[in-house]
Amino acid sequence: MNGEAPSASVLRTGSLRMRTVVAVLVLLAVLLGALGVVVQATLGDRLRAQVEDRLRDRASAAAALVGTVDAADLADRLSMQGLSVTITAADGGSVEAGPSPDQLRHGPPDPGTLPAPAAAPARDATADPSTTGTDAASHVTIRSSRLTEGDRIVTLVSTLSDGSRIRLTAGTGPVDEVLGELRWVMLAASVGFMLVAAVGLVIVVRRTMRPLDVMTNAARSIAHGDRGRRLRPARQGTEIGRVAVAFDEMLDAVEGAERQAVSAEARMRSFLSDAAHELRTPVAGITAAADTLVRARPDVVEREELAVHVVRQAGRAARLVDDLLLMARVDGGLALEPASVDLGAIARSEADRARLRSPGLTVQVSETDGAVVVSADGDRIGQVLANLLENAARATDGAGHVVVEIDRLGDVGRVRVADDGPGIPAVDRARVFDRLVRLDAARAASGGGAGLGLPIARGIARAHGGELVCPPGVGTVFVLTIPATTDQHTPTRHGGLQPIGLPTGGCGIVT
Question: Which one-letter DSSP state was computed for residue 69?
Fold first, then answer.
């Protein structure tokens, strides 16, 4: 295998103009051919029907003249119209006139070859009207007729009421000639029409495909650095308009992704720089103490002080590394163990730990709506509350008053942590959730902290489908919201890892 994609997935890039022109011309050729067939069939049927009607009319006229005109004279009169005539009398005698059927098959006969018409017999003016042929002929009618079509001829055989029979044969050669001429005329007209249509289609398709050339040029321009160029179609509902809109949306998404990638890279560089700077301080302290222990000969008291300094700086570095690893897990996805937990119980437990760490800190837990049960990882939620209480202790120098309120707001459980410290300026309330950000007041009060606690706390909250914000208020206020469960009875623990989606922040869940 050479790694190439299968041929079925290769995009066909034949000329769209050529395919469009050829397809339209083929369709026109089919339509013109069908039209020619329909016209030929319709006109041929019409002309043959006229020949048949002509034979029936001549047969009716001949029947009206039987008895008044001699049979030979009647045959001559009918043959003068280019018909082959055979009149058979009732007694078996027959008279023929005009061209033979074989002559009619080869085309209309030469008038000079036809026999001269016989003179009509004179009528006796003194004859008794009661004995004339007119009165006798008035009773002669066509009893039956039989029409047959052969090779280029049509024959009508009519049987009269007096027992005689008239056979009239007409040639269809003129009809075939007319149809043949019409066929050639339509063929020539169709060829001319196809040539004109081909030229017109090339021009029209070229103008129609011009927006694709514009899109191609725009794509090439964007590929060469003109990121702000857009198509901006005048009509977005057409096919080209929809493609142009999708093209612009794709470019907006690509440009936005590029900006986000550049911004993320810049933030990552800044984060790595700040993390290295934070690690440099404890590492430098450990290095200096270790160098003193190795190079100098300190006494026992100084050695113990240096050892304590090494332990303290190593612990600080370890905490920073742990925070960095947890921040990476938050970004890559936390493995949560969700269960039905009581926010009030978690808050009371973390409040007791905060009092042990800071004996001068007053922590008051208030549950306004009774037990608020949420589906969450209790250890992670406890970590968030512990972080918020630790920040409150630092902001108040470990001797302030902290109020923790737990209530239910709609379908979410809410924890509000407020202290009576100096508070956070309005311009910094959103910035405190950025990584490695420490406000001057907080740094002075605490004397440490890497600035990762609040970003980690918000990431954990968002991993549960909730949020952590810092709204305006007296002192410092943080509000944690977690989706509540419908069952507010005694919380039970559920084992197993379950994925919980994130609305924002990019903190996915890995199970």
Answer: B
pTM for the model: 0.46
Residue pair 55/142 in contact (Cβ under 8 Å)? The answer is no
Rounded alpha-carbon distances, angstroms, from residue 212 to 202, 222, 297, 455: 16, 15, 83, 48
Q: Given this model, what pLDDT does residue 330 score? A: 73
Q: Are 201 and 180 in contact (CB under 8 A)?
A: no
Q: Greater confidence, 132 or 310?
A: 310
pLDDT at 64 over 80: yes
Other C-beta atoms closer than 10 Å to the C-beta of 283 total 15
Q: What is the pLDDT of residues 354-384, one digit of tens each?
A: 998 888 899 999 988 778 899 898 888 998 9
Measured distance CA(18)–CA(24) in Å, rounded: 10
Plot region of 36 (φ>0 → left; ψ -120 to 50 → alpha; else → beta): alpha
Element at 483 (helix H, strand E)? strand 476-483
- Can you tell me the distance from the alpha carbon of 150 to that of 85, in angstroms, rounded to the nearest whole number? 16
Distance between start and end Cα atoms, the chain: 35
Residue 376 near residue 340 (C-beta atoms within 8 A): no
Q: Please tell me the distance from the alpha carbon of residue 98 to that of residue 85, in angstroms, as a whole number.
A: 6
Q: What gap in Å lies between CA 134 and CA 431, rounded to an integer?
A: 126
Nearest 5°: the CA angle 61, 65, 70 is: 130
Which pairs from 69-76 meet CB under 8 Å and 24+ separation?
69/120, 69/121, 69/133, 70/118, 70/120, 70/121, 71/95, 72/97, 72/118, 73/117, 73/118, 73/119, 73/120, 73/121, 76/115, 76/116, 76/117, 76/118
Residue 235 CA, distance from chain mean position = 18
- The residues with which 160 forms a beta bridge, in sequence order, are 142
Give the β-pairing of 401-409 and 362-367.
parallel
**Greatest C-alpha distance within the chain:** 180
What is the bridge-based pairing of β-strands 362-367 and 373-376? Answer: unpaired
DSSP 68: T
> What is each CA distance from 450 to 156, 264, 319, in whole angstroms?
117, 20, 9
C-beta neighbour count of 298 within 10 angstroms: 13
Q: Residue 305 has which token pair?
A: 């002080």
Extended strands (E) in 138-229: 142-149, 153-160, 165-171
Rounded to whole angstroms, the Cα distance separating 451 from 438 reads 5
Confidence of residue 509 (pLDDT cuts 50, 70, 90): very low
**Relative orientation angle of helices 71-79 and 16-65, to the nearest 10 degrees:** 160
